[in-house]
């Protein structure tokens, strides 16, 4: 027997064929590169992801999502052919039929209701080339003003704040390699350990060098565990906390007066405001003891170098822009910027969350971070695109507001590329109903996501292994992803789909690209002279140099790894802007009916709406279902036990979840992840209040109450229609 097994193994080894694909993880903004190994034996195919030690950013690290990233791309549920909904069933059709259908529906809709009756919705997983092309597709092929993307939910408050204060929004002002040189690091509303896990070694190294780490989060997380000081803030009160810290910094003399005088405006007004702040009041508002606020402020104030990072915990609020402005005040008042170990970072989320917001997917922007309402910028882009300036539409509205326009039937048709808005928007029930009101919906996706399931036409797009192009990581480093596998079935590259859709709309001449590189060449030209200038960056340079930082306006320029080294900010007067930021309460305060605050966020094992990671068995096993985290004292008060089902009610709706009792959370809040949709998706509860300046939704606070469910029904999940129209049960995991 053992002989037989030995022979079997020998045979297997002899016939094992190995192929190595150099690639990079599609998920978060770290964009870890790796070598994906396919081992084919006569009996099986095995896949293994090996880290890339030569990666200049992550130096051979990957997290659990990266190791498993290829799994969803190989899943048998991948879309492989266009699907058209006919009499409630999905029918497979050819690309010719799909494009002809699309052309007819757009024509009918636009002739009847005007060009703006068709909207476009994009995503931050797209390559720079595709993000650029999507913006051009909306403005040139459809000639609609309505385009926006999921990055509105992700980075827009930090982007607006950085533009206002510093004159430029590039997520991090410094390269990651500066972090170990920081003496004090503040992580505000940023759960790096679970959301950018391969960034953690930079912080560990800083700590090893003696840095103090301060984490601001209402929960204890894998990130706060590393912190020397953890400020367990009441959600929505970051601006107040920073006011308290600024007061200590002013009183104890850590203000950098010469820097403020030479390089900023607004300090006298800010100073007067800070003088009026009471740290005791701040302690009351934030729920953080005064002494802890003082300790944090001293630590940052006294440090010779320091870095402040903010993420969605600070930004996803009705006052997210102002929250970030106050953290920027903190950075500027102490002059900790523009040096190694001193700077600010809005931690970008999505794989191409950074590049995705630079090249025209946003309602108010054109490529190179140009503004669509700036006549000069319009002329520049119109010239690159070979159209008249007046043909360019004006600004549209933000992501969530597009669905309000759909609800109002102002937008009647929509194309969604690489996003799942029915799960990721606040007030998701309204968004779902709005989509059902559309005359037509086209979704370009890898799977029949919750959104694609509501579409009329579903087009099979490309996954990261199949699609080459550039991505811009959280540092502002432009990197290149190769295509290493062929597309499944009749799936097409996302940019090719856009080009073919433009072609049937009679605009093919503007989209006659034969490769991603050709699109990049045009993008470079379109970005020239803009804030996010890519004109000096080429595929060859990226390859040779391991990525190039923007702005880079010249093939011979090294790119700009650290911004503001000369302490000149990117406003016409070269000065950064300070403003007083008074505390404002979150828009939906708790009350007798809804006495708890719900905050939402992420699990390590899942990515965003989970369409990809819930199809990855190893990841699903790690986190099979969403749990409502609740403090033991709160659980007692609400009479719920660990593992029990509860109904969670908000003013928008009700969902059912299982409870997880944990001391790692404040008593006045509950926490839930965003990775599941369907009837019990958390965004059925969240508040559609938008920041007035960035139009980012307030995902991080809404008022809820709980109701224990006594008898629970089997948790089997809802029905969804199968490709051939047969109903199919889908388990809760999916
Ligand atoms: N595993 C995983 N990684 C991801 C993603 C994912 O889905 N899964 N998504 C990627 C994307 S697109 C993004 S945008 C990033 C998000 O990355 P993060 O912003 O770090 O993640 P979140 O969990 O949304 O929020 C961070 C923390 O904010 C805290 N918080 C809530 N309210 C407040 C508040 O009022 N003030 C403060 N100071 N903190 C608060 C939460 O408790 C949470 O721990 O992650 C990226 N990486
Ligand atoms: N309550 C709450 N809600 C939130 C947040 C929160 O913290 N709390 N965070 C918000 C944030 S920060 C974000 S970024 C949004 C994200 O929200 P979404 O954009 O809706 O989330 P994804 O899961 O990334 O959706 C991507 C979809 O595109 C598909 N896809 C992935 N890659 C490709 C590709 O290359 N080509 C094509 N054609 N399709 C592709 C996937 O299968 C999936 O269906 O959610 C927001 N919603
Ligand atoms: S999810 Fe982020 S940290 Fe994890 S492997 Fe992918 S890119 Fe790297
Ligand atoms: Mo995000």
Topology:
Layout (H helix, E strand, L loop, with lengths): L1 H14 L1 E8 L8 E8 L4 E7 L12 H10 L9 E4 L2 E4 L2 H19 L4 E5 L5 H15 L4 E3 L6 H11 L17 E5 L3 H4 L4 H9 L3 E5 L12 E3 L6 H14 L5 H7 E2 L1 H9 L3 H8 L3 H13 L3 E5 L1 H4 L4 H14 L9 E4 L6 H4 L8 E2 L3 E2 L3 H11 L13 H9 L5 E5 L3 H4 L3 H10 L2 E6 L11 E4 L8 E4 L4 E5 L12 H11 L11 H12 L11 H7 L2 E2 L26 E2 L18 E6 L15 H6 L4 E4 L1 H7 L6 E5 L4 E8 L7 E5 L13 E4 L6 E2 L3 E7 L10 E3 L5 E3 L5
Parallel strand pairs: 6-7, 6-16, 8-9, 8-12, 9-10, 11-22, 12-13, 16-17, 17-18, 23-27, 24-26
Antiparallel strand pairs: 1-2, 2-3, 4-5, 4-18, 14-15, 19-20, 20-21, 23-30, 25-26, 25-30, 28-29, 31-32
Helix pairs in contact: 4-20, 4-21, 5-14, 8-11, 8-12, 8-14, 17-19
The structure holds ligand MGD (2 copies), iron/sulfur cluster (SF4) and molybdenum atom.
The site of one ligand MGD has 32 residues, from α6, α13 and β23.
Estimated radius of gyration: 25 Å
Give me the CATH architecture of the largest domain, please: 3-Layer(aba) Sandwich
Number of strands: 32
Total domains, how many?
4
Percent helix range = 25-40%
Strand order, largest beta sheet = 5-4-18-17-16-6-7
Q: What is the count of DSSP helices, taking H or I runs of 4+ residues? A: 24
Chemical compounds bound to the protein: ligand MGD, iron/sulfur cluster, molybdenum atom
What is the CATH topology classification name of the largest domain?
A: Rossmann fold
Give the strand content. 15-25%
Mean pLDDT across all amino acids: 95
Beginning-to-end CA distance, first to last residue = 42 Å
Major pleated sheet:
7 strands, mixed
